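Researcher: Sequence recovery benchmark, item below. Answer with residues only.
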């Protein structure tokens, strides 16, 4: 079996569902259930004997050591993190605590477990750390895409915390020999993404007739990867990746933010036209830019394509279509995750609608 951390979040839940459907191997999911964790994401597994959920903190060494001793996972797939850049700007300490200290505590528990394993089990054991392309910093329009050798230049408290965790993972391999794998991945999208991130936020606001907040000029470029493609890449890395190696994962879909927002609007115009017949794009509102906003990310996926024969399968426009349809079909999910604390965050981040519109 494998131990997944953060399996109730956006990518973790997609991974657990895909893992059980494709590999069928049992999973223990350790998740603290922060504002971003929703056990309902895995409600379909409630009666599945291959799935065990444990609510807890990756930094709770006694709990993690006990789980490792009792379940003897052959791998740890580590998703748990604070993941939203804007929240890291308003509250960086939580990012240092979870992403840096929490990952370090998890690594230490994994190391002690790994050292006690019989030789064959120890040789097969893997610690897969799920990280981000943001650790590499920002690219100019004509710059070559990030390779695994690109210099680390994190610019936000979020990316700095992920960079620090990557360094600890590297050090645990280099110093102690722990068989680690690290992936640095671009922007994911798909079902069950918390509506604080661009794509689900725009879908939700559009359906409510509210402003679609575009930071600055909206010409910042991201590489978009469907979450199912990310999960299939992680399975390839876990199965065939070389211990100690890092792999960049991308969607081969660079798009400017404004283009992404207009694609969502056009999709909604087709799938759920507004009652008054007006275009959703009329709701686009330029607001104050994110401080330190990275201009462009791009992934060179030659290593994972060449060494592990993996490439993304979902074209961006098809993936957006499916994602918009999922949100249209799951208004109840959006409703359930956006109560209380969510509304507080949106008010803090964007202000009242009139305030947001005048902040451009
Ligand atoms: P998310 O915010 O949706 O989910 C994070 C999950 O971790 C939640 O279920 C939360 O409850 C859990 N968690 C938080 N702190 C915890 C702790 N101390 N102990 C146990 N569980 C805890 O995040 P996501 O978007 O699914 O991202 C998952 C991972 O992938 C993160 O490490 C993130 O840095 C990385 N990543 C995300 C993207 C993306 O586009 N979303 C891209 C590249 C890499
Ligand atoms: O690149 C991988 C990273 O992608 C992950 O490591 C992070 O966990 C994930 O959150 C994501 O980070 P971004 O900052 O790129 O994602 P976000 O959805 O927050 O923003 C995408 C772009 O859209 C970014 O340029 C900021 C912009 N944006 C975002 C929001 C929330 C807006 O213009 N308006 C908004 O309201």
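Model:
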């Amino acid at each position: 079996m494998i131990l997944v951390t953060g399996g109730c979040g956006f990518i973790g839940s997609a991974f657990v569902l895909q893992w059980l459907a494709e590999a069928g191997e049992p999973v223990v999911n350790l998740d603290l259930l922060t504002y971003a964790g929703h056990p309902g994401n895995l409600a379909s597994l409630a009666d599945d004997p291959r799935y065990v959920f444990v609510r807890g903190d990756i930094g709770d060494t006694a709990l993690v050591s006990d789980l490792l001793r009792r379940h003897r996972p052959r791998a740890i797939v580590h998703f748990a993190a604070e993941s939203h850049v804007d929240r890291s700007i308003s509250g960086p300490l939580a990012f240092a605590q979870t992403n840096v200290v929490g990952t370090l505590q998890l690594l230490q528990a994994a190391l002690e477990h790994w050292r006690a394993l019989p030789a064959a089990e120890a040789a097969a054991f893997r610690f897969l750390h799920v990280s981000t392309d943001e650790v590499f910093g920002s690219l100019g329009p004509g710059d070559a895409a990030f390779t695994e050798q690109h210099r680390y230049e994190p610019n936000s408290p979020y990316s700095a915390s992920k960079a620090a965790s990557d360094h600890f993972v590297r050090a645990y391999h280099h110093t102690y020999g722990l068989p680690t794998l690290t992936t640095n991945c671009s922007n994911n999208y798909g079902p069950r993404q918390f509506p604080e991130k661009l794509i689900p936020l725009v879908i939700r606001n559009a359906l409510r007739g509210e402003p679609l907040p575009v930071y600055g000029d909206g010409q910042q470029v991201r590489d978009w990867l469907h979450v199912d493609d990310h999960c299939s890449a992680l399975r390839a890395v876990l199965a065939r990746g070389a211990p100690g190696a890092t792999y960049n994962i991308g969607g081969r879909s660079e798009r400017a933010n404004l283009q992404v927002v207009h694609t969502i609007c056009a999709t909604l115009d087709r799938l759920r036209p507004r009652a008054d017949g007006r275009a959703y794009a009329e709701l686009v509102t330029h607001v104050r830019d994110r401080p330190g906003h990275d201009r462009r990310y791009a992934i060179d996926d030659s290593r994972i394509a060449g060494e592990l024969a993996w490439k993304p399968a979902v074209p961006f426009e098809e993936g957006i279509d499916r994602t918009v349809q999922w949100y249209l079909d799951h208004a109840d999910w959006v409703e359930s995750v956006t109560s209380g604390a969510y509304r507080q965050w949106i008010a803090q981040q964007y202000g009242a609608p009139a305030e947001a519109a005048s902040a451009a």
